[in-house]
Amino acid sequence: MTDAPPLARAMAEAAAEIDQALDILLPAAEGPEAPLFAAMRYAVIGGGKRLRGFLVLEGARQFSVSRQAALRVAAAVEMVHAYSLVHDDLPAMDDDDLRRGKPTVHKAWDEATAILAGDALQSHAFTVLAEEATHPDPAVRVELVRCLSKAAGPRGMCGGQMIDMLAEQSGGQMDEMAVGRLQTLKTGKLIEFSAEAGAVLGKAPTPQRHALLAYGRDLGAAFQIADDLLDATASAEETGKATGKDAAAGKATLVSLLGLERARLQAERLVAQAKDHLDGFGERGDLLRMLADFTIERRS
Q1: List of domains in the chain
Q2: How far apart are CA 133 and CA 174, in angstroms?
Q3: Per the count of CB atoms within 10 A, which of 127, 216, 256, 290 is most buried?
Q4: CA diameter of the chain
Q5: φ and ψ at 98, to 5 degrees?
Q6: How many Å apart are CA 65 and CA 88, to the nearest integer?
């Protein structure tokens, strides 16, 4: 990777570190629980862009947080993200057979094991955050638990999924504002937390914490539009998952409401806003600026 662009190299190195942390925090088990641990490891270790974990690491780097502490939080975020994907892929939800280029957990095992693996990944993530190894200050650990649970709960990721299901049942009749709210909850809140977490770990001043949170908010919105664009234009081989499903299901997305070009322009505006929030971080925020551009340039 020595000849790779700086962002690609940094993301690859971070992904390897996060996988190593996950391997330690979620070791293989023996005995009757072994299939559950195997399904959890299958869901979370290897594959994926690790965008959320990378955000945690880069946010933490702004405040010279120890790499070990940041990696534990990055791993916890990736566990929560993986749990959401495992459940999202179930027949009762999106009914997908492919994720990150391999069979989904309920296909590799069965539906019951997939449900338990998702549940266990979520609970284990909070165990990791609550342990003293994550931060010596219990107030910081409580704040991390509070913020992540809020991002993943009924006013965050789960709430967004509920709105998404209801919208599909009603034939996808949603306007631009409603779609934006759905996407903010379902995808954006976890990205917001990932961007903010480093500031929490570093006990950053309120303005800097708010700047990273605002960066994450705009980045998350741009990321979701880019995902919708990929669903409309990319192949399953490129993305590692089924594409064209939104249109087939009649789902309202910003792409379906605005068209490809206007949706791209909206994503570009959001990326520009995200980068503006990093003005106070100087050169140290360069990888975060590059990540914002990558969000809408990616093909997977």
Answers
A1: 6-297 (1.10.600.10)
A2: 45
A3: 216
A4: 54
A5: -130, 135
A6: 33
List pLDDT tens digits, range 166-207. Answer: 887 777 678 889 999 999 999 999 999 999 999 999 999 999
| Residue (of 39, 45, 52) closest to 113 by Cα position | 39
Q: How far apart are CA 220 and CA 191, in angstroms?
A: 6
Picking from 186, 155, 179, 183, the residue whose alpha carbon sits closest to that of residue 81 is: 186
Q: What is the per-residue DSSP string for 81-129?
A: HHHHHHHHTSTTTT--SEETTEE-HHHHS-HHHHHHHHHHHHHHHHHHH
How many contiguous H segments (helices) and E segments (strands) does the chain have?
Answer: 16, 2
Burial class of 138 by CB neighbour count within 10 A (0 to 12, 13 to 18, 19+): exposed
103 φ, ψ to 5°? -55, 140
Whole-angstrom Cα distance, residue 135 to residue 144? 10
SS3 253: coil
C-alpha gyration radius of the chain = 18
pLDDT digits (tens, 9 = 90+) for 252-264: 788 888 888 899 9
Cα gap 291→9, rounded to integer Å: 12
Q: What is the pLDDT of residue 250?
A: 61
Distance CA 286, CA 272 (A): 13
| Contact indicator for 178, 38 with CB cutoff of 8 Å | no
> Cα angle vertex 89, ends 84, 95, to 5°?
150
Beta bridge partners of 102: 99
> Dihedral angle at the C-alpha atoms of 181, 206, 125, 95, nearest 10 degrees?
10
Element (H, E) at 68: helix 67-88
Q: Is 205 left (phi over 0), alpha (psi -120 to 50) or beta?
A: beta
Token pair of 110, please?
């069965």
